[in-house]
């Protein structure tokens, strides 16, 4: 399997992290994002949206980090990370949507503004970040993991841009339960990090 990847992308990191946690090898194909390679015709044949990551597995080409996580879990029969039963599947999937929406428009947008100079509303992104981090903190006050009492794709999907929040000027100090959750993720066997993440306590 090939992952078209940028090491500074939290969405690409989701796939790298999950594969590391389940012991699956990936061939990493670096994309010169700053050089505009993601908008060139050869890349657009893989993903017409011109976004990373893209996963290639034989003839299959997949875009979108959430879809890639689902595919990897199913391909490798990892019901422990993505349950097959209706309730468990729905409980995990709702957090994939949170990662793609609230986390993306909060901590991620703040980071895009501060680190990469994207023309985004910093105040709005930080307000969105504060909202989603408060929800995560409340959720994690009473439980170790977001769902099902164990690490799942819910945690893998939400973790990267939370762990990168401080690069967007969003302090994680007010969210102690989130910090403890991050420590638990970092302690998982096979865990790999990425540049810019908040260091452990």
TrEMBL record:
UniProt domain GST N-terminal: residue ranges: 1-80
Domain GST C-terminal per the UniProt entry, residue ranges: 85-201
Entry superkingdom: Bacteria
PANTHER family, sorted: GLUTATHIONE S-TRANSFERASE-RELATED (PTHR44051), HYPOTHETICAL GLUTATHIONE S-TRANSFERASE LIKE PROTEIN (PTHR44051:SF2)
UniProt similarity note: Belongs to the GST superfamily.
Protein name: Glutathione S-transferase
Species this chain originates from: Methylopila jiangsuensis
């Amino acid at each position: 399997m090939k992952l078209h990847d940028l090491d500074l992308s939290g969405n690409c990191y989701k796939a790298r992290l999950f594969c590391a946690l389940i012991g699956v090898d990936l061939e990493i194909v670096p994309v010169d994002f700053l050089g505009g390679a993601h908008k060139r015709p050869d890349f657009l044949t893989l993903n017409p949206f011109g976004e990373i990551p893209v996963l290639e597995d034989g003839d299959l080409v997949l875009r979108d980090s959430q879809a890639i996580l689902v595919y990897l879990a199913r391909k490798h029969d990892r019901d422990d990370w993505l349950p097959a039963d209706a309730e468990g599947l729905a409980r995990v999937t709702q957090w994939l949507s949170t990662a793609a929406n609230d986390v993306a428009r909060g901590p991620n947008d703040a980071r895009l503004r501060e680190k990469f100079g994207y023309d985004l509303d910093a105040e709005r992104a930080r307000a969105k970040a504060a909202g989603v981090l408060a929800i995560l903190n409340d959720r994690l006050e009473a439980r170790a993991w977001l769902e099902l009492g164990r690490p799942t794709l819910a945690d893998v999907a939400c973790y990267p841009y939370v762990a990168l929040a401080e690069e967007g000027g969003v302090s994680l100090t007010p969210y102690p339960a989130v910090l403890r959750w991050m420590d638990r993720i970092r302690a998982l066997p096979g865990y790999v990090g990425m540049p810019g993440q908040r260091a452990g306590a």
